[in-house]
Amino acid sequence: MFILKKQDVEISTIQHPKRDQQVPVLYYQEQTFRLIHVFPASEEEEAVALWRDLTDNRGKACVLLEEPERYSIWGKVRLKQPNDCDTDELSKVSLLSKASLLLIQAVHMDIEDLLGSRSSKLFTQDIAKILEKHKLVSNPSETVEKLLNINPLRAAQSPIWKEKQLVILLQELHQLGKKYFGNENFAYKVTDQLEEMTDEDRSVFIRWLKISPLSKLWQ
Fold it and tell me: Block means of pLDDT (10 residues each) for the chain, length 219 residues?
């Protein structure tokens, strides 16, 4: 199908439907691809040969990603296949995940602005430990910096977590906030931290907070 380079695509992760792990996915021109095989850079011929066999002989929609250290083959999928949920459910958890990531970023920015760069770096390390402990990303040490700086409202860049994972993540985030600020005032007026979202999406997230175990933490 295509031979692409890293700058042509965006790579993120989604939750595996049956195992407690994250699955890497590649986004290209509003299409989604799941990782099939990885080759070291020294096996370029083998990578191209498998890619051509999949596309030319087996009729698969695949892309070959060329990177300095490796070649990887990705097969086209619909998001609901790897995530094992219908379109409405995927849309909901995607929205909740984006809003949750906005909260993480807001707490991080407040810590950096009010407590300084040292505390900001410590918070980044703490978030990485939480993501690793609950297996919310495949490589937390490399991913957390990206998560703290991306625009979560761009679907191609934002991870998708399950609701129970989001509850745990936001509970841990609240505990971190109390640790750094010494009180719970940082969580006041959560809607102010979600001003980039549309009114409708923000309302969906706030309604979810109110009926979740998080209602007393972020209201």
Answer: 78 66 77 86 90 84 89 78 47 84 90 90 91 79 78 70 89 91 76 79 86 79
Tell me if 178 is assigned to some domain.
yes
- Shared domain check, 112 and 68: no
- The total number of residues shown for the chain amounts to 219
Q: Are residues 181 and 99 in the same domain?
A: yes
Range of the domain at 106: 87-211
Residues 101 and 155 in one domain: yes
Residues 94 and 171 in one domain: yes
**Total-model pTM:** 0.60
**Residue 216 belongs to a domain:** no
Do both 97 and 203 map to the same domain?
yes
CB atoms within 10 A of CB 92: 16
CA atoms in the 13 A half-sphere facing the CB of 209: 24
> Concatenated DSSP letters for the chain?
-EEEEGGG-EEEEEE-SSSSSEEEEEEETTEEEEEEEEEEGGGHHHHHHHHHIIIIIS---EEEEE-SSEEEEEEEE-THHHHTS-HHHHHHHHHHHHHHHHHHHHHHHHHHHHH-HHHHHHHHHHHHHHHHHTT-SS-HHHHHHHHTTS-TTSTTTS-B--HHHHHHHHHHHHHHHHHHHSSSGGGS-GGGGGTTS-HHHHHHHHHHHHHSTTTTT--
What is the domain-level CATH number for residue 26? 3.30.200
